[in-house]
Specification:
The protein contains three helices and 18 strands. It has 359 residues and is mainly β. The protein has one domain: Beta Barrel (Porin), CATH 2.40.160. Strands 1-2-3-6-7-8-9-12-13-14-15-16-17-18 form a 14-stranded antiparallel β-barrel. It has a two-stranded antiparallel ribbon with strand order 4-5. The chain has a two-stranded antiparallel sheet with strand order 10-11.
Length: 359
Protein backbone atom coordinates (compact mmCIF):
# COMPACT_ATOMS: atom_id res chain seq x y z
CA UNK A 1 0.00 0.00 0.00
CA UNK A 2 2.81 2.44 0.89
CA UNK A 3 4.56 1.67 -2.40
CA UNK A 4 1.39 2.44 -4.37
CA UNK A 5 0.97 5.72 -2.50
CA UNK A 6 4.54 6.73 -3.23
CA UNK A 7 4.09 5.93 -6.92
CA UNK A 8 0.90 7.99 -7.08
CA UNK A 9 2.46 10.93 -5.24
CA UNK A 10 5.50 10.89 -7.52
CA UNK A 11 3.21 10.71 -10.56
CA UNK A 12 1.25 13.76 -9.41
CA UNK A 13 4.44 15.71 -8.73
CA UNK A 14 5.83 14.74 -12.14
CA UNK A 15 2.64 16.03 -13.74
CA UNK A 16 3.17 19.35 -11.99
CA UNK A 17 6.70 19.59 -13.40
CA UNK A 18 5.68 19.01 -17.02
CA UNK A 19 2.43 20.98 -16.90
CA UNK A 20 3.97 24.47 -17.13
CA UNK A 21 5.78 24.03 -20.46
CA UNK A 22 2.85 21.97 -21.74
CA UNK A 23 0.42 24.83 -21.04
CA UNK A 24 2.56 27.08 -23.22
CA UNK A 25 2.35 24.66 -26.15
CA UNK A 26 -1.32 23.71 -26.05
CA UNK A 27 -4.23 25.92 -26.93
CA UNK A 28 -2.61 29.11 -28.22
CA UNK A 29 -4.67 31.96 -29.58
CA UNK A 30 -7.37 29.56 -30.79
CA UNK A 31 -8.41 28.35 -27.33
CA UNK A 32 -12.09 28.70 -26.52
CA UNK A 33 -14.59 27.47 -23.91
CA UNK A 34 -13.33 30.38 -21.83
CA UNK A 35 -16.25 30.22 -19.39
CA UNK A 36 -14.46 27.29 -17.74
CA UNK A 37 -11.67 29.62 -16.58
CA UNK A 38 -14.05 31.95 -14.72
CA UNK A 39 -14.20 29.56 -11.77
CA UNK A 40 -17.02 29.42 -9.25
CA UNK A 41 -17.85 30.69 -5.79
CA UNK A 42 -17.71 34.20 -4.34
CA UNK A 43 -14.96 33.41 -1.81
CA UNK A 44 -12.22 32.43 -4.30
CA UNK A 45 -13.08 35.34 -6.62
CA UNK A 46 -12.92 37.82 -3.74
CA UNK A 47 -9.38 36.57 -2.99
CA UNK A 48 -8.22 37.30 -6.53
CA UNK A 49 -8.57 33.66 -7.66
CA UNK A 50 -5.54 32.80 -5.49
CA UNK A 51 -7.22 29.63 -4.24
CA UNK A 52 -5.18 26.68 -5.52
CA UNK A 53 -3.56 25.85 -2.18
CA UNK A 54 -6.32 27.06 0.14
CA UNK A 55 -9.07 25.21 -1.77
CA UNK A 56 -11.63 23.79 0.63
CA UNK A 57 -15.38 23.43 0.82
CA UNK A 58 -17.58 22.86 -2.24
CA UNK A 59 -15.87 25.73 -4.11
CA UNK A 60 -12.73 23.58 -4.30
CA UNK A 61 -14.41 21.63 -7.11
CA UNK A 62 -13.92 24.59 -9.46
CA UNK A 63 -10.31 25.33 -8.45
CA UNK A 64 -8.54 22.22 -7.13
CA UNK A 65 -10.38 18.90 -6.61
CA UNK A 66 -7.77 17.76 -4.08
CA UNK A 67 -9.34 20.14 -1.57
CA UNK A 68 -12.48 18.05 -1.08
CA UNK A 69 -10.44 15.21 0.46
CA UNK A 70 -10.20 17.17 3.71
CA UNK A 71 -13.95 17.64 4.12
CA UNK A 72 -15.62 15.77 6.99
CA UNK A 73 -19.28 16.68 6.35
CA UNK A 74 -21.72 16.93 3.48
CA UNK A 75 -21.72 20.43 2.01
CA UNK A 76 -23.26 22.17 -0.96
CA UNK A 77 -23.26 25.64 -2.46
CA UNK A 78 -25.00 27.69 -5.13
CA UNK A 79 -23.55 30.85 -6.66
CA UNK A 80 -24.60 33.40 -9.22
CA UNK A 81 -22.73 36.25 -10.90
CA UNK A 82 -24.24 39.14 -12.82
CA UNK A 83 -21.97 39.56 -15.84
CA UNK A 84 -21.81 42.01 -18.68
CA UNK A 85 -24.72 42.72 -21.06
CA UNK A 86 -27.23 40.94 -18.84
CA UNK A 87 -25.44 37.57 -18.93
CA UNK A 88 -25.39 35.31 -15.89
CA UNK A 89 -22.96 32.74 -14.54
CA UNK A 90 -24.27 30.12 -12.15
CA UNK A 91 -22.50 27.33 -10.30
CA UNK A 92 -23.76 24.46 -8.20
CA UNK A 93 -21.52 22.20 -6.10
CA UNK A 94 -22.05 19.26 -3.73
CA UNK A 95 -19.44 17.28 -1.79
CA UNK A 96 -20.14 14.01 0.04
CA UNK A 97 -17.40 12.43 2.21
CA UNK A 98 -17.10 8.69 1.64
CA UNK A 99 -14.81 8.06 4.60
CA UNK A 100 -12.22 9.87 6.69
CA UNK A 101 -9.83 9.61 3.75
CA UNK A 102 -11.86 10.41 0.63
CA UNK A 103 -14.83 12.29 -0.78
CA UNK A 104 -16.79 12.61 -3.99
CA UNK A 105 -18.10 15.83 -5.49
CA UNK A 106 -20.52 16.98 -8.17
CA UNK A 107 -20.45 20.31 -9.98
CA UNK A 108 -22.43 22.28 -12.54
CA UNK A 109 -21.13 25.46 -14.15
CA UNK A 110 -23.38 27.46 -16.47
CA UNK A 111 -22.84 30.60 -18.56
CA UNK A 112 -26.22 31.94 -19.67
CA UNK A 113 -26.78 34.67 -22.23
CA UNK A 114 -30.51 35.11 -21.85
CA UNK A 115 -32.62 35.82 -24.96
CA UNK A 116 -30.79 37.82 -27.66
CA UNK A 117 -32.87 39.41 -30.39
CA UNK A 118 -31.92 38.53 -33.96
CA UNK A 119 -31.21 41.48 -36.25
CA UNK A 120 -30.68 41.61 -40.00
CA UNK A 121 -29.55 44.24 -42.46
CA UNK A 122 -33.18 44.94 -43.31
CA UNK A 123 -34.33 44.85 -39.66
CA UNK A 124 -31.52 46.44 -37.68
CA UNK A 125 -33.79 47.23 -34.73
CA UNK A 126 -34.90 43.64 -34.27
CA UNK A 127 -37.01 40.91 -35.84
CA UNK A 128 -38.97 39.77 -32.77
CA UNK A 129 -37.05 36.49 -33.04
CA UNK A 130 -34.55 35.47 -30.38
CA UNK A 131 -31.71 33.03 -29.78
CA UNK A 132 -29.51 32.04 -26.85
CA UNK A 133 -25.83 31.29 -26.33
CA UNK A 134 -25.64 29.02 -23.29
CA UNK A 135 -22.66 27.00 -22.07
CA UNK A 136 -22.70 24.19 -19.50
CA UNK A 137 -20.13 22.01 -17.76
CA UNK A 138 -21.18 19.09 -15.55
CA UNK A 139 -18.49 17.26 -13.59
CA UNK A 140 -17.81 14.59 -11.00
CA UNK A 141 -14.73 14.73 -8.75
CA UNK A 142 -12.90 12.39 -6.41
CA UNK A 143 -10.41 13.47 -3.75
CA UNK A 144 -8.35 11.37 -1.38
CA UNK A 145 -5.87 11.90 1.45
CA UNK A 146 -2.79 9.98 0.39
CA UNK A 147 -1.00 10.84 3.66
CA UNK A 148 -1.76 13.12 6.61
CA UNK A 149 -0.24 16.01 4.66
CA UNK A 150 -0.71 15.14 0.99
CA UNK A 151 -4.05 15.01 -0.87
CA UNK A 152 -4.85 14.48 -4.54
CA UNK A 153 -7.99 14.85 -6.61
CA UNK A 154 -9.33 14.43 -10.12
CA UNK A 155 -12.37 15.79 -12.00
CA UNK A 156 -14.06 14.51 -15.15
CA UNK A 157 -16.47 16.94 -16.79
CA UNK A 158 -18.69 17.02 -19.85
CA UNK A 159 -19.05 20.33 -21.67
CA UNK A 160 -21.93 21.51 -23.85
CA UNK A 161 -21.90 24.72 -25.92
CA UNK A 162 -25.09 25.89 -27.63
CA UNK A 163 -25.16 28.89 -29.96
CA UNK A 164 -28.49 29.41 -31.72
CA UNK A 165 -28.75 26.48 -34.18
CA UNK A 166 -25.29 24.98 -33.64
CA UNK A 167 -23.81 23.10 -30.70
CA UNK A 168 -20.59 21.46 -29.58
CA UNK A 169 -19.79 19.02 -26.82
CA UNK A 170 -16.62 17.61 -25.33
CA UNK A 171 -14.99 16.48 -22.12
CA UNK A 172 -12.03 17.51 -20.00
CA UNK A 173 -10.02 16.49 -16.94
CA UNK A 174 -8.69 18.37 -13.91
CA UNK A 175 -5.95 16.92 -11.70
CA UNK A 176 -4.73 18.62 -8.54
CA UNK A 177 -2.85 18.12 -5.28
CA UNK A 178 -2.23 19.91 -1.99
CA UNK A 179 0.51 19.50 0.60
CA UNK A 180 0.47 20.82 4.16
CA UNK A 181 4.03 21.68 5.20
CA UNK A 182 2.99 21.90 8.85
CA UNK A 183 4.56 25.28 9.63
CA UNK A 184 1.92 27.92 10.43
CA UNK A 185 -0.46 25.78 8.41
CA UNK A 186 1.57 26.49 5.27
CA UNK A 187 -0.09 24.74 2.34
CA UNK A 188 1.16 24.23 -1.20
CA UNK A 189 -1.04 23.32 -4.13
CA UNK A 190 -1.10 22.85 -7.87
CA UNK A 191 -3.72 21.96 -10.43
CA UNK A 192 -3.93 21.14 -14.14
CA UNK A 193 -7.35 22.03 -15.54
CA UNK A 194 -9.41 21.70 -18.73
CA UNK A 195 -7.23 19.07 -20.39
CA UNK A 196 -9.22 17.53 -23.21
CA UNK A 197 -9.60 17.08 -26.97
CA UNK A 198 -10.56 19.84 -29.39
CA UNK A 199 -14.22 20.65 -29.92
CA UNK A 200 -16.16 21.49 -33.11
CA UNK A 201 -19.59 22.94 -33.76
CA UNK A 202 -22.28 20.92 -35.52
CA UNK A 203 -25.96 21.49 -36.25
CA UNK A 204 -28.57 22.67 -38.68
CA UNK A 205 -27.12 26.18 -38.66
CA UNK A 206 -24.19 24.88 -40.73
CA UNK A 207 -26.37 23.25 -43.39
CA UNK A 208 -27.19 25.13 -46.58
CA UNK A 209 -28.03 24.52 -50.23
CA UNK A 210 -25.69 25.32 -53.08
CA UNK A 211 -27.81 27.04 -55.71
CA UNK A 212 -28.18 25.15 -58.95
CA UNK A 213 -26.61 26.44 -62.17
CA UNK A 214 -27.04 25.54 -65.82
CA UNK A 215 -25.35 22.14 -65.33
CA UNK A 216 -27.43 21.16 -62.28
CA UNK A 217 -31.04 20.09 -62.12
CA UNK A 218 -31.48 20.90 -58.42
CA UNK A 219 -29.77 22.53 -55.42
CA UNK A 220 -26.97 20.57 -53.76
CA UNK A 221 -27.22 20.08 -49.95
CA UNK A 222 -23.99 21.36 -48.38
CA UNK A 223 -22.50 21.82 -44.91
CA UNK A 224 -20.06 24.37 -43.56
CA UNK A 225 -17.15 22.75 -41.72
CA UNK A 226 -16.45 24.11 -38.24
CA UNK A 227 -12.80 24.66 -37.41
CA UNK A 228 -11.71 22.74 -34.27
CA UNK A 229 -11.00 24.88 -31.22
CA UNK A 230 -8.89 24.08 -28.17
CA UNK A 231 -9.71 23.81 -24.50
CA UNK A 232 -8.30 26.60 -22.28
CA UNK A 233 -5.65 24.29 -20.78
CA UNK A 234 -4.59 25.79 -17.44
CA UNK A 235 -1.79 25.21 -14.95
CA UNK A 236 -1.88 26.90 -11.54
CA UNK A 237 0.35 26.59 -8.51
CA UNK A 238 0.11 28.39 -5.21
CA UNK A 239 0.70 28.66 -1.49
CA UNK A 240 -1.39 29.62 1.53
CA UNK A 241 -0.20 30.52 5.03
CA UNK A 242 -1.86 31.74 8.22
CA UNK A 243 -0.14 34.98 9.19
CA UNK A 244 -2.33 35.19 12.30
CA UNK A 245 -3.58 31.87 13.63
CA UNK A 246 -6.02 33.04 16.34
CA UNK A 247 -8.51 32.53 17.86
CA UNK A 248 -10.39 34.83 17.81
CA UNK A 249 -8.72 36.28 14.71
CA UNK A 250 -7.22 34.53 11.71
CA UNK A 251 -5.44 36.16 8.78
CA UNK A 252 -4.60 33.95 5.81
CA UNK A 253 -2.53 35.04 2.83
CA UNK A 254 -2.57 33.17 -0.48
CA UNK A 255 -0.47 33.51 -3.61
CA UNK A 256 -1.02 31.90 -7.01
CA UNK A 257 0.70 31.66 -10.37
CA UNK A 258 -1.60 30.68 -13.24
CA UNK A 259 -0.98 30.12 -16.94
CA UNK A 260 -4.03 29.77 -19.19
CA UNK A 261 -2.98 28.55 -22.62
CA UNK A 262 -4.36 31.55 -24.53
CA UNK A 263 -3.36 34.21 -22.00
CA UNK A 264 -0.10 35.52 -20.53
CA UNK A 265 0.91 34.00 -17.21
CA UNK A 266 -0.60 35.87 -14.28
CA UNK A 267 0.02 35.99 -10.56
CA UNK A 268 -2.41 36.79 -7.76
CA UNK A 269 -2.36 37.54 -4.04
CA UNK A 270 -5.32 37.07 -1.71
CA UNK A 271 -6.07 37.87 1.92
CA UNK A 272 -8.81 36.54 4.18
CA UNK A 273 -9.47 37.83 7.68
CA UNK A 274 -11.77 35.73 9.83
CA UNK A 275 -13.26 36.75 13.17
CA UNK A 276 -14.26 33.73 15.25
CA UNK A 277 -14.64 31.88 11.93
CA UNK A 278 -17.98 33.65 11.62
CA UNK A 279 -17.33 36.97 9.88
CA UNK A 280 -14.90 37.29 6.99
CA UNK A 281 -13.28 40.08 4.99
CA UNK A 282 -11.43 39.25 1.76
CA UNK A 283 -9.20 41.09 -0.70
CA UNK A 284 -7.53 40.03 -3.95
CA UNK A 285 -5.02 41.54 -6.35
CA UNK A 286 -3.70 40.31 -9.70
CA UNK A 287 -0.09 40.67 -10.83
CA UNK A 288 0.65 40.56 -14.55
CA UNK A 289 4.02 38.89 -15.17
CA UNK A 290 4.25 40.30 -18.70
CA UNK A 291 2.61 43.76 -18.83
CA UNK A 292 2.36 45.44 -22.24
CA UNK A 293 3.97 48.83 -21.57
CA UNK A 294 5.43 49.44 -25.02
CA UNK A 295 8.95 48.91 -26.35
CA UNK A 296 11.76 50.93 -27.83
CA UNK A 297 10.06 51.00 -31.24
CA UNK A 298 6.81 52.21 -29.66
CA UNK A 299 7.04 55.98 -29.41
CA UNK A 300 3.71 56.44 -27.62
CA UNK A 301 3.90 57.54 -23.99
CA UNK A 302 2.53 55.32 -21.25
CA UNK A 303 0.47 57.05 -18.58
CA UNK A 304 0.10 56.00 -14.96
CA UNK A 305 -3.39 54.57 -15.50
CA UNK A 306 -2.10 52.24 -18.22
CA UNK A 307 0.76 51.06 -16.02
CA UNK A 308 -1.63 50.29 -13.14
CA UNK A 309 -4.07 48.51 -15.47
CA UNK A 310 -1.38 46.36 -17.08
CA UNK A 311 0.55 45.48 -13.90
CA UNK A 312 -2.46 44.80 -11.67
CA UNK A 313 -4.26 42.61 -14.20
CA UNK A 314 -5.44 39.17 -13.14
CA UNK A 315 -6.55 36.22 -15.29
CA UNK A 316 -9.33 37.10 -17.77
CA UNK A 317 -8.45 40.82 -17.38
CA UNK A 318 -9.83 40.89 -13.85
CA UNK A 319 -8.75 43.79 -11.68
CA UNK A 320 -8.68 44.07 -7.87
CA UNK A 321 -11.41 42.23 -5.96
CA UNK A 322 -12.95 42.24 -2.51
CA UNK A 323 -15.67 40.48 -0.60
CA UNK A 324 -17.47 39.67 2.63
CA UNK A 325 -18.70 36.45 4.18
CA UNK A 326 -20.64 35.16 7.16
CA UNK A 327 -21.19 31.68 8.62
CA UNK A 328 -24.18 31.05 10.85
CA UNK A 329 -24.62 27.80 12.83
CA UNK A 330 -28.25 26.66 12.95
CA UNK A 331 -28.50 23.54 15.07
CA UNK A 332 -26.39 20.86 13.40
CA UNK A 333 -26.31 22.87 10.16
CA UNK A 334 -23.95 25.63 9.11
CA UNK A 335 -25.16 28.22 6.61
CA UNK A 336 -22.73 30.49 4.82
CA UNK A 337 -23.31 33.56 2.65
CA UNK A 338 -20.50 35.13 0.60
CA UNK A 339 -20.31 38.17 -1.66
CA UNK A 340 -17.57 39.31 -4.02
CA UNK A 341 -16.93 42.40 -6.12
CA UNK A 342 -14.46 42.16 -8.97
CA UNK A 343 -13.27 45.14 -10.95
CA UNK A 344 -12.75 44.72 -14.70
CA UNK A 345 -10.52 47.11 -16.59
CA UNK A 346 -12.54 47.19 -19.81
CA UNK A 347 -16.05 46.14 -18.79
CA UNK A 348 -18.48 46.74 -15.94
CA UNK A 349 -17.66 45.34 -12.47
CA UNK A 350 -19.02 41.89 -11.62
CA UNK A 351 -21.06 41.17 -8.50
CA UNK A 352 -21.25 37.58 -7.27
CA UNK A 353 -23.06 35.93 -4.37
CA UNK A 354 -22.91 32.38 -2.98
CA UNK A 355 -25.07 30.48 -0.54
CA UNK A 356 -23.68 27.38 1.15
CA UNK A 357 -24.88 24.81 3.66
CA UNK A 358 -23.04 22.07 5.53
CA UNK A 359 -24.60 19.30 7.61
Amino acid sequence: MKTKRRILILSVLALAVIATPLSARLGGSGASVSFLTMGGGARPIAMGCAYTALADGPDALFWNPAGIARMDRIAGSFGQAILFAGMLEENLALVVPLSELDAIGFQVLAHLSGPIEITTYEHQHGTDNYYTANNYAVGVSYGRKMTEKFSAGITFKVIDLTLHRVAAWGFALDVGATYNVGIRDLRLGFVVQHFGPDMTYKGEGLIFNTNKDTLQTEDIPSTYKSEPFHMPFTFAGGAAIDLVEGPPSRLTMTADFAHISDQPAKGAIGLEYGLNETLFLRLGLGLNTAPELGGEEDNTSVDAATIVREVLSNRNSRGPSAGLGVKIPIGSYEVGVDYSFEWHWYLAPVHRASLGIAF
